[in-house]
Amino acid sequence: MLKSFIYIILLSVFFNACSSVKKNERYYQEKLCSKLDGLMEYTLKDKTRVDCLSSEYAIEVDWAEKWAEGVGQSLYYAQMTNKKPAIALIVGSKDERYVRRLNTLAKKLDIKIFIVNK
Questions:
Q1: Domain span including residue 98
Q2: What does pTM read for this prediction?
Q3: What is the pLDDT of residues 82-102, one digit of tens each?
Q4: Of 106, 88, 103, nearest to 52 (Cα)?
Q5: I need a surface site. Which of 10, 58, 67, 112 has the fewest CB within 10 A?
Q6: Contact between 62 and 25 (Cβ < 8 Å)
């Protein structure tokens, strides 16, 4: 009886830990790219890779705090693929300042923004 109880508690702890595991960038990349029917990790001639290449956009997928890096990458990927630049920004509840910063440049540079909630 005690063994069964301990086993159930251990399983419960294990499943709770698994459900709270932080998802990595690739998880969000796969979800978005699948939704857009795009190609993941499209390799350019210079061996750089576009996170997701859709029929319309060259998309850089990144965490909110890396928004500035995403601007440069999306513009470069768009230039190299003859697609429109886009950034899929992975955001949490405390990332509004990054979204505002990105919006400022995205409007000026005509970059599409996809917001992906954590």
A1: 22-117
A2: 0.80
A3: 999 999 999 999 999 999 999
A4: 88
A5: 10
A6: yes
